[in-house]
Amino acid sequence: MFASIRKFIKSLLYPLYERRLVRSLDFSKTPHHVGVILDGNRRWAKSNPTVNDPHGHKAGASKIIEFLGWCEDSDVKVVTLWLLSTDNFKRSQEEIDDLLTIIGNTVDELAATGRWNIKAVGALDLLPNWLAEKLAALKPIRSDGVEVNVAISYGGRREIVDAVKSYMGEEVAAGHSLADAAAKLSIEDISKFLYTAGQPDPELLIRTSGEQRLGGFLLWQSALSEFYFCEAYWPDFRRVDFLRALRSYSVRKRRFGS
Question: Which of 88, 238, 240, 243 lies 20 to 30 Å from 168, alpha-carbon distance?
Answer without folding.
Answer: 88
